[in-house]
Specification:
Elements (H helix, E strand, L loop, with lengths): L3 H16 L2 H17 L1 H13 L7 H5 L3 H16 L7 E6 L5 E8 L2 E6 L4 H12 L3 E5 L5 H17 L7 E3 L4 H8 L7 E5 L2 H10 L12 E5 L5 H13 L8 E7 L6 H10 L3 E4 L1 H7 L8 E3 L13 E7 L2 H11 L4 E5 L3 H10 L4 E4 L18 E3 L7 E3 L5 E8 L7
Parallel strand pairs: 3-4, 3-6, 4-5, 7-8, 7-12, 8-11, 9-10, 9-11, 12-13
Antiparallel strand pairs: 1-2, 2-16, 14-15
Helix pairs in contact: 2-5, 2-6, 2-7, 3-7, 5-6, 10-11
Length: about 425
């Protein structure tokens, strides 16, 4: 299957989208939010077809699953995006040169954005809403696990686009095949940017094979460091929320680092985790501190492979360090530059942790579960960027625009 015709149609449709006013785009987004609720039975039925092909024990199962509550949350986020100011046409910088040339830098859409993702059907709505609001056309390439759900969502989106007189190619869903991925990664004549969302293997494959600029939304190997001066009650709540709020998402905590002077508090820090049946992979000092005070069936000795693992499950590693330098070094070695947290009442140590931790999001006395575009007030997110060029952290509307220079003269010539 040659998809170049489809890519060309998306590129052409992007020009129509860029000519549409913000008011028209907002009406589209509100229509999509309404349709997500109105069509929820057909969307949920398609989602049940996908879920039936996946074991509930698969870490992707929770990501794949849609419910009426989740669809209402998706619709709420789309309405929030509609309420935000347009990110396009913002004057970022302006000046008048000595030769009286007026020069300004103004935000503009990328044009066409391709997003490759796995068992995350909510991404189909989120990406479309953010791209439409920022006047970018989007090409959606979901995985086979969510094929039925993505088709139902795409049909809902296209119906709204057509009712509003908009070319449906502004949001195109590709077949869930490897061949479609390969063609998208090399569609540099038509596509301006690729954003992968999914496993480390997917992101690595896209980075190594794309001939189009890529923004990495990396895997989340997230740590919480319970410092020598941490508050136990506060730490227990933070650790539990960071690990168990939703284990299948990239902001879930994978490793607790604890200062050796606070090992006696480790059972209290982990007490709530046993109610959620979290398996702990503890190093020898932590294992000794937990033995007899945490269920034997949920306590195992850590292996080297347990560190640097994104579990996406009710599992968590524990590492003991003698000092803060050890915590920082462990994060440098095993972290993915996504989200890291410190629990401490010492403000100087908190400042040092923030300064020396190389991650997109660094928390003090709060869980990594807050790393989310909606939580950051962005309406929704297109992904969590773990790289440093162009965008970092939750990517909302501003992060999927670029800029151009506009220069106005009155007959000046360059000597």
């Amino acid at each position: 299957m040659d998809l170049n015709t489809t890519f060309a149609q998306v590129q052409k449709a992007s020009r129509q989208l860029q000519a549409a006013g913000d008011e028209r785009i907002n009406a589209l987004l509100k229509g999509m939010a309404d349709a997500a609720i109105e069509q929820q039975e057909s969307i949920l039925e398609a989602n049940r077809e996908d879920l039936a092909r996946m074991s509930p024990d698969n870490p992707k199962y929770d990501r794949l699953k849609l419910t009426p509550e989740r669809l209402h949350d998706i619709a709420r986020d789309m309405r929030k995006v509609a309420s935000l100011p347009s990110p396009v046409g913002r004057v970022l910088k302006e000046s008048t040169l000595p030769n009286r040339l007026k020069i300004r830098r103004e935000s503009v859409p990328f044009g066409v954005i391709g997003v490759i993702y796995e068992a995350r059907p909510n991404v189909s709505f989120d990406v479309t809403a953010l791209c439409l609001k920022s006047q970018n056309a989007c090409i959606l390439k979901g995985g086979s696990d969510a094929a039925s759900t993505n088709r139902a969502i795409a049909a809902t989106i296209h119906d709204v686009l057509q009712r509003h007189g908009m070319d449906p190619h502004v949001a195109e869903l590709l077949p869930p095949t490897h061949e479609a991925t390969a063609q998208l990664l090399h569609a540099d004549r038509y596509v301006d940017l690729i954003i992968p969302r999914g496993s480390g293997n997917l992101i690595r494959f896209v980075r190594e094979n794309a001939t189009i600029p890529v923004i990495e939304t990396g895997a989340g190997i997230c740590h919480t460091y319970f410092d020598r001066y941490g508050d136990t009650a506060k730490g227990a709540r933070i650790i539990h929320n960071a690990k168990t709020r939703r284990v299948s998402v990239c902001n879930a905590m994978d490793c607790l680092i604890i200062h050796a002077a606070r090992l006696a508090d480790l059972p209290d820090l982990c007490r709530m985790l046993q109610d959620s049946h979290v398996t702990l992979y503890a190093d020898p000092p932590a294992y000794s501190a937990l033995q007899g005070r945490y269920p034997d069936t949920l306590l195992q000795e850590a292996t080297p492979e347990d560190y640097g693992t994104e579990f996406l499950d009710y599992k968590m590693a524990i590492k003991t360090v003698e000092h803060m330098d050890g915590a920082l070094e462990h994060i440098r070695h095993y972290g993915s530059r996504h989200s890291e947290s410190i629990v401490t009442e010492d403000q100087e140590r908190a400042r040092r942790f923030c300064r020396e931790t190389d991650a997109a999001c660094v928390y003090v006395n709060a869980p990594t579960s807050f790393t989310d575009g909606a939580q950051f007030g962005l309406g929704a997110e297109i992904g969590i960027s773990t790289q440093k060029l162009h965008a970092r952290g939750p990517m909302g509307l501003e992060e999927i625009t670029t800029y151009k220079w506009l220069i106005e003269g009155d007959g000046q010539t360059r000597p």
